[in-house]
Every structure is written in structure tokens, then in C-alpha cells.
Amino acid sequence: MSDYAIEAPKPVTIPVAGSDKVYPVRRVYCIGRNYAAHTVEMGGDPDREAPFFFQKNPNNLDATGQFPYPDKSSDVHHEAEIAVMLKSGGTNIPVEKALDHVYGYALALDMTRRDLQGEQKKAGRPWEIGKAFERSAPVGPVHPASEIGHPDHGAISLTVNGETRQTGDLNQMIWKVPEMISYLSDYFELAAGDVILSGTPSGVGAVQKGDVMVLSAEGLGELTVTVV
């Protein structure tokens, strides 16, 4: 007999590469404008200022390989990223200890209803309507750091229908993974299951139904996502 007043929601999990295990998701943090060229592309100043973060919902992460084009938008953009999966956490984590808390890494897309996000920006309102909608974060399998290490350089790219849209290198991140973890831990109590999307290179752009996106990064393979 359950003590729940209603049926409990199913936990959100992501497959672990080469294993029958899954990674459970607790929270999803996303850093904004973490590559200089993308910062300029979005009208910002690439100088190293304090980072800022927004959140997606755990069940926005989706490993099915399909991205349903959302309602209420006619300008949905791709943003190629890598996701950092934590195995432990805490508060006030020193930069030099931050990577000790990482379980692994995955390819991910931060899909964005850019038109709705733009409206919220102009009004000084939160971005969730443009960022945290259903299945807005297609994600690939988690690659344990015990097997691939901690990628801090290497090419990351995205093609749409075979045409290259985004290219960059992980070493171009303004705020590196250990710094992101440390900074977040000053404001939130991080924990196992927390996911951090690490920002996108320049070249973001719109997709349409039927488009096929292929995201790749060194050490993490490829993630193919079809817009449906």
C-alpha cells in the first residue's frame, strides 16, 4: 500500500553508454553565453563577467532521438552542448575539487523557442517559456568519466540535414566545467543526479519539422535527433 496521495511520477533516467544501468536526473542547470562567439552572436559582451544560469526541468531531458516541434512558436533554435552529470555534490565546492563530483558526460541540445525567449527578455521576465518546454533537451547516453576522463578540449559540431551549422572547441568555454560546478555550489546545494548544460558555440539557428540534427564531440560520439 502506497502513502502517496496520487500516483508517483516516474523518475527521469538517461542510459549509460555500454551498460544496462541508467543515470537518474535530479536537477538541470544551464549556463548562458559560455562561448565568446555565441555571446557576440546573441548581442552580449564576451568579456569574462560572472556567469549566469537558468534551469530546465528534469523531464525536459529526452533520450528518444526525436524532438517534437513545439506549439506556440515559429522560431525554434538548436544549441549544441555537452552535459555534465554529477555523482555527488555539496556547497562551496573548491574549483580544484569540482571534478571529483562528476560521474560522466553526454551530448545534449538546448532547444529554444527563440521568439518566446526574446519576448521575455524584452519584458524582463524569466525564460522558462522559451527554454523549459517538453522534450526541449535531447540528450545522448552518459559516458562515465572513469572511462573517457574529463574532456576539456576537442571539437564540438552540429549539422542539420548534412549542413554544418555550429563548430567550436570545448577549450573555448569562457567558464570551464570545474568553475561552473564551484560557482553553482556557492548558490545551490548540488547533489548526485544534477546535470549542467555547458553552453553552446556560435551558429545557432532555426529548425523545421523533418530536419535531422547530428551533434558530435570528441570522446562522446554522435547524437542524431529528428525534428518531428
TrEMBL record:
Top-level taxon: Bacteria
GO MF annotations in UniProt: acetylpyruvate hydrolase activity; metal ion binding
Keywords: Hydrolase, Metal-binding, Pyruvate
SUPFAM superfamilies linked to this entry: FAH
Domain Fumarylacetoacetase-like C-terminal: start-end pairs: 28-228
Alphabetized InterPro entries for the sequence: Fumarylacetoacetase-like_C, Fumarylacetoacetase_C_sf
PANTHER family linked to this entry: ACYLPYRUVASE, FLUTATHIONE S-TRANSFERASE
Name under which the protein is recorded: Fumarylpyruvate hydrolase
Organism for this UniProt entry: Silicimonas algicola
